[in-house]
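Hey, can you fold this one?
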Amino acid sequence: MSTNTDLHVNPSREEETTSKLPSHIWAGGVAVRTIFLIVLVVLTARVASPQMERLTSIYETPGDLIRALIGVAVCAWCIVNVFKLPKDADAYRTWIYMGIGLVPLALLCAYVVW
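Sure. Predicted structure:
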């Protein structure tokens, strides 16, 4: 018994959910995500900076060099992610919900570290 059914290709779910996304949710999600990632870059740069006053002292201690290299990599990754926006509408909603707790916590951590 053989059934011959045509498989219909559904339109991409990404296009469908992104087109239904209200602009205020998109703007809020982008704003919260961007603020969080920028604060994360600032925190990482502050923590990864050398312990000495001069930047040339980074070569004196291997721990400072390794910490600075890892810090540069993390900062670069965060900066790239600032410009790569999520493609899913639910991601913007998630960023709004998580941002309510994450952004104040990140700002508090930046204040304490500074």
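The chain has one domain: 22-113. Let me know if you want another pass with a different chain boundary.
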